[in-house]
Design goal:
This protein is of the alpha/beta class. The protein contains 15 helices and 5 strands. Strands 2-3-4-1-5 form a 5-stranded parallel sheet, with helices on both faces. β3, α6 and β4 form a beta-alpha-beta unit. α4 packs parallel to α5. The termini are far apart. The relative contact order is 0.14.
Length: 328
């Protein structure tokens, strides 16, 4: 049967890699963040190794927070890698996150003032007396930058506004927390690092099935009945093809690649490589769509190999070895 897709193939979010499939770990992260917000906890660490989907998950958490708390002020900014710490650049970065049109101009004192004024203005438009800030790659922050951020917290506190800062980054954040404790920098730990949350990958077939079901449920355009699976395989979908049924086959493909590489740590699939595996399988085999089409183990083995999962995990193994040496 010939199906007329509702949009051009190239405009689909999966082709453009502009989509988010909720995972159990993302849902778990959201529940923890929501609890921190409800308790007005001033700061927490969210950590995972590279490519485990931290940035991806934070986008989802922000989207759901905005849905659950309409109008709430959320700032999201990346922490910049630099040789020298510039207060001027630091506040310009925060001003951009707050949407201020003059983020680059003026003195440092003027930028500090603009930032707090802008946040107050944004908060005044809402029914919430708080601002939630997500600092991505926060392991790049140094003690002086925490002090500058603490000044912002204090200024807003005097205006009756609670600032909640969530530090998103790599496991080095835990080492930094321990170092701050050892050096008696309790003002930083108690303000920004009270709680810790590890963002995990996909750890079981059940986790995987939950993720894959998202491709069978999410529709684009949103008001249509064109799920992601149906869009790429309309004939097979009409005949019963569902991604949720592929969980065992995909888990086996990752397990086989993991075992062949002789990794000495448990299989935990980063969301980035699951998504890439599915994208490869969809894009390379959509032309084979037919009522009888089904994904074979060979398709999943090939897609996992092409996703660069093994090379990425090899890099992770080296990082983990370096971290272990540092701890010794």
């Amino acid at each position: 049967m010939d199906f007329q897709r509702p949009i051009e193939f190239e405009r689909h979010p999966l082709v453009e890699q502009k989509y988010i499939v909720p995972t159990p770990s993302i849902e778990e992260l959201y529940e923890k963040v929501k609890r921190l917000v409800r308790l007005r906890t001033p700061g927490a660490i969210i950590y995972a190794h590279p490519r485990f989907g931290k940035t991806y998950s934070i986008r989802y958490v922000i989207r759901v927070l905005r849905s659950d708390m309409p109008g709430v002020v959320i700032l999201s900014f990346g922490c910049q890698k630099k040789k020298n710490h510039s207060e001027d650049a630091f506040f310009s970065n925060l001003l951009k996150a707050a949407g201020h049109p003059a983020a680059e101009s003026g003195s440092i004192n003027r930028k500090r003032s603009r930032l707090t004024d802008k946040i107050k203005e944004l908060v005044d438009r809402t029914r919430y007396n708080l601002v939630i800030a997500f600092a991505d790659e926060a392991q790049r922050l140094d003690i002086i930058e925490y002090e500058w951020l603490r000044d912002v917290h204090d200024e807003l506190e005097r205006a009756g506004i609670r600032m909640i800062t969530l530090l998103v980054g790599q496991p080095q954040l835990l080492n930094q927390k321990n170092a701050f404790r050892a050096s008696k920098q309790t003002q930083i730990v108690s303000r920004f690092m009270i709680d810790e949350m590890r963002f995990r990958g996909i750890q079981s077939v059940d986790d995987l099935a939950t993720c894959l079901a998202g491709y069978d449920a999410a529709c684009y355009p949103e008001a249509s009945d064109w799920t992601y699976t149906r869009f790429f395989f309309p004939n097979a979908y009409d005949d019963g093809l569902r991604m949720a049924d592929q969980s065992v086959a995909i888990w086996n493909a990752f397990e086989e690649a993991h075992s062949a590489a002789r990794f000495d740590f448990a299989l935990e699939i980063p969301m980035q490589y699951l998504a890439r595996t599915v994208e490869i399988a969809f894009l390379e085999h959509t032309e084979n769509d037919a009522p009888e089409f089904r994904f074979s183990p060979e398709i999943w083995n090939s897609s996992v190999n092409e996703s660069s999962y093994v090379s990425a995990q090899e890099e992770l193994r080296l990082v983990m070895a370096d971290d272990a040496e540092d701890e010794e």
